[in-house]
Amino acid sequence: MSDNYSVIDVSSSKLCVRSDVSFSLRRRNEQCFYLLEDPVTGRYFQIGIPEYVFLSQCNGKQTIAQAISRTATILGHDAFSESEAFAVSKWLVDFDLATTDRRMDRPAHAKSPSTEPASWLNRFNPVTLRVTFGSLDRFFEQANRIVGWLFHPAAVAVCFLIVILAGMIVLTNWDRLVRQTTSIAAVDNYLWLFVTWIAVKLIHETAHGVACKRMGGRVKQVGVLFILFVPLPFVDVTSSWKFDSRWQRAFTAAAGIHVELILASIATCVWHWSDSPLLEQRMFNVMLLCSVVTIAFNLNPLMRFDGYHILTDVLALPNLATLAQTRLRNVGRRIFFGLNSRPISVAGWRSWVVGLYGPLAFLWRIFVACGLIWAAEQLFFGAGAILAVLAALAWFGTPLLRLLRFVCFGSPLEQPNRWQFAATVFCVVGMTWGVACLPNPLEFSAPAVVTFASPDSLNANMAGTVVRVWVPDGITPVKQGAPIVQLENAEVEHRIQVLEAELKVAEAKQRIAFREMSPVDLRIQRRIVSAYQRELQEALRDRDELRIVAPADGNVFMSDANELEGQFATPARPLCGFGAQQSLRIHAYVTQDRRQEIQCGKVVTIRCHGQPTIVGKIENIVPTAVHSIPSSLSAINGGPIAVQVGSTDESGDATYQPIDKLFLVSIVPTPTTFDGWIPGRTGTVFLDTTNTIGQTVWHTATQWVENRRGHAG
């Protein structure tokens, strides 16, 4: 006989909870709840007092309506509604915790959960697959005898000191650590990074199982979760829910992180005292995966990993995710469908935690799902698009289909207010459109380097031997007229000495002619003195030409200053480079998708490392992509741009070719002072856009599609 919602009275169905299902009362702070254990599957569930009272009435001898009536008599206002009773009953049947004389989960013409397309997509999502291997409780019992001492309070205290020592090593070697991060992206490190990841996660999950056994629990199940076909082992330690102490439960959840931090600390010490570059790289992999990665993911409370279970035990908020999801769902039902639900019975500051956790966890799940879909499409080329579509259908398509079905047909116990749903959707669409029309408040940045538009070279005005160099090697800011190089010319010096002596003789003869009152001789001697004076002034000017000074405010580029002294210089030989401050430029490198948004004459913000922020104006945009970038901006030298090493240039140095298409943007800075702005310094240029938020999103999406088509072609 086929059942149908149109003819079945759900309230007349009889529900019988399995006799082997056990319930135990628990109390955390001022909250009481029941722990439900399924001995067949080894699973544990936490339920509230109203749910337990309702289940205690479901003995198979009375209908659901009678059980609801008796529950209302016992609990009064705390009893839940008929729709909530139906949801609890359906949950019991779905998890095989109860049996019923009639189907309550779906109409008779619908497919079973295992064959329904939506359920199939959820179970066999190609982006996330789960494979279980049963229980390995004996293995964890043996492991507890061997390494269980790690979780003794004394051992935990010693490990804490080791972690502090590792932290001090990291702080004192921070520059070396930052330089080491550039080797993570090396191709030959990928395999070792993957192997280290698998080994670390095996140790992490083993720690959970050992801690659970040490506290008196039992490991019910082990398995592997595949995310983008990357294996992630897991263990089922839900038996820790039976522990009376919340600190034992929290420590069981934190055991994996505890062991990983120990591994990270040991790896840090080995990395610090090692002389082998290969060993340093391997230890750095362990340091990164066991500290940064595990804290960012395992300690994140917004997903049901270690951090979530630690948070729920510390705050004494069991079923935090369920409560938060229910509250968020109730708010959505009230706003979109005009349906009221029984409020969540959480009082005090915990109510604020539940209210805040729901939206944050919901947004985080969407972010993670979108990130995995994007990663699947990027990593697996053509097959990645198929994986991404299937994952999107599983994560987003299924809920949307259920929502659409509920809007169109409702449920046997609830009918949505379709007019309110249409009005709310219209308001949401209108608000979204309004936000899309707003100017984009965000600014995008581009890596930049300080340079000169047309650097000059300083040459000797006349030949001479270098006797002093006033500036050191490197780039030195100088003011106009500052001495740079001093040369010496023996011929000029000898000529000056001869002219000075002859001038003194001529001046003496001039004085004698003046005393003797000889007009003719006086006129002749005056002419001779004037000629010597002119020649001496010319010789002195030649000597002044031997000192090279800065022609204007700018920067001197000097190399091999010590070797330059004593060498003979000619006017054809450049001694050093010079760039005037007027020709100072900031060269920014922008990607192809951003190039169209940049306009000449636009004012931008420039932040150079170690210098105050200044502004500048875009002078020029090179229409063709650059073939090489300055070495200081390359990822190989710690810069932000991924490059590959190309052929050598005319000077014999290797060129750095950017992997992505980059376009050069020349910017004229307009600061009040140029102190410290020397060529070669790197920084960041922040460029505002005039597009709206909607235009930016649309442009980004279309550009991404075009890039994918280009890669496919």
Overview of the structural elements:
- It is a single chain.
- The protein contains 20 helices and 25 strands.
- It has 713 residues and is an alpha+beta fold.
- The strands form 7 sheets. It has a 6-stranded antiparallel beta barrel with strand order 10-19-24-21-20-25.
- α12 (320-337) packs across α13.
- The two termini are 57 Å apart.
Q: What average pLDDT do the residues reach? A: 78
> What's the total helix number?
20
Decide which structural class fits the backbone: alpha+beta
Computed Rg: 40 Å
Unreliable spans are: 1-8, 103-121
The 3D shape can be described as elongated
Q: Distance between termini?
A: 57 Å
Main pleated sheet: 6 strands, antiparallel, barrel
The fraction of residues assigned to DSSP E strands is: 15-25%
Strand order of the largest sheet: 10-19-24-21-20-25
The oligomeric state is single chain
How many DSSP-defined strands?
25
Helix percent band? 40-55%
Main attributes of the structure:
alpha+beta, single chain, 713 residues, 6-stranded antiparallel barrel, disordered N terminus, 4-stranded antiparallel β-sheet
